[in-house]
Design goal:
- The chain contains two helices and nine strands.
- By secondary structure, the protein is mainly beta.
- The protein starts with 43 loop residues before the first helix and ends in a 17-residue tail after the last helix.
- It is globular and about 55 Å long.
- The longest helix is centred in the first third of the chain and has 10 residues.
- It is 7% helix and 23% strand.
Amino acid sequence: MDEPVIPDAETAQRPPAGASSTTPAAAPSEPTAASAAEVDARFAPLIADAFREYRGWGRVDDELRWAPWLCRLPMPGRARMSAADDGGHARKLYSVFARLRDRYPFVQGPEPVSQPVGQVLVKESYHPELVEKGAAPQLPGTSGPESPHGPEDHFDPYLRDGDSVYRASRLAGAYVVLKVAPETPGTDEGWVYGTVTPEGEVTSAGRVASCMGCHESARHERVFGIAPATGQ
């Protein structure tokens, strides 16, 4: 669900040239209708519950939700670009929410961070739009119309990539990964994966092969983590 991120925008793969702020760039693949075998009825309700609840958890990189502890200005959550070169994650702009925010790791922390039973991660995936020069704010936004989940959701939807700026626009879908007891049958050593449409339809749940194939290599159990903000 979450994945390695590229801290430097210069190395991020760009959406195809020619996309505009009114025409979405080649969009990331939305969670597609899965076969019955990909929707395990035992876990579909857990995926649906996560999709209903995650907006109140906060984004993993939203520093404005926490008491100040930094020697710099706290930053809002921000749109990030997938490191994937192809497949469903390619050129995707996304943001991650976590139920247990204090257990969500940085991608290159000093030690692997174990994840407790009950951890749930939801990654929002957005259609990227190329923004006309001068249309994006100079400083990251913190609330208001750019925050899709209300004034307590601090989100900068703009990804600055050299001379180009892309905006996370319409929600393309959500990816969910959660942890239950490791001995639970039908799971990936306790991990359950799922995909949800913007309307809330669960399109996959359980041991989703396309998710497992990537997350098995994650450093923090099945969690990759996120790059820290500049100066942290």
